[in-house]
Structure formats: C-alpha cells, structure tokens
Specification:
The chain has 4 helices and 4 strands. By secondary structure, it is α+β, with helices and mostly antiparallel strands. It has one domain: Nucleotidyltransferase, domain 5 (2-Layer Sandwich), CATH 3.30.420. The longest helix has 19 residues.
Length: 120
C-alpha cells in the first residue's frame, strides 16, 4: 500500500510534468501549503534557481496577520510574491499548485498574485 505522503509526492510530480510541457521557458510559481503557513516561490527551472519568494513567515507580513493559515494570509503572500517578481523582472509565470487542489488558500494566493500583476 502507498502512504499518503507518497501519494502527494506522486500527484505533485504529475502536475509538474504536465506544466513543463506548456511552460515555454516561463518560470514556475510554486505554492506550498502547510497547516500553519503558506509559501510561494517563483522558480526558473532552466537555470535551477529561485527568482522571488514570499511566505506568511516574512517579518513584514507576520505582524499584520492574525494567523498564517487563512485566506487573508494567502492573499497577502500572493500580493507580496507578485511585487517581488516585478522587481526581479518577471511578469509571465506558470502556476504550480503542487499536490493541493485549487481551492481555498491556494486559490486566494493565485487570485491576489494575478491582481498584483502576474500573468498565468
């Protein structure tokens, strides 16, 4: 039998495999959601480096958020990663939701990143 962790890893790799086909050289906006925080980073897979990153643990956001595990925190992280991406010169990305469904905190992060100026 497969474990839950292994199923999540397999699902995430399946998503990333399909994203590589449609990326056309665009960087990937990767999202990780834990029970207490949410993380987002823009990764250039060609060079293998992170261009911009943000999380609910950032000192600027941490004091203004009630908790790092709600949709308000996810929206703030999405807006912050979009601002940092603009500074890095990135406007077009591919959204990588990992093994998480596009709902709730992941959706809130994506929508606020779109409002912040990222295209995906």
């Amino acid at each position: 039998m497969t474990t839950t962790k292994e199923n999540l890893r397999r699902r995430a790799s399946r998503i990333r495999r399909s994203l590589k086909k449609v990326a056309n050289g665009r960087p990937r906006l990767s999202v990780h959601r834990s029970s207490k925080n949410i993380y987002a980073q823009i990764i250039d897979d060609v060079e293998g480096r992170t261009l911009a990153a943000a999380s609910s643990l950032d000192p600027n956001l941490r004091e203004s958020l009630k908790t790092g595990a709600d949709t308000a925190a996810a929206a703030a992280v999405g807006k912050l990663v979009a601002e940092r991406a603009k500074v890095a010169g990135v406007t077009d990305v591919v959204f990588d939701r990992g093994a998480f469904i596009y709902h709730g905190r992941v959706k809130a992060l994506a929508e606020s990143a779109r409002e912040g100026g990222l295209n995906f």
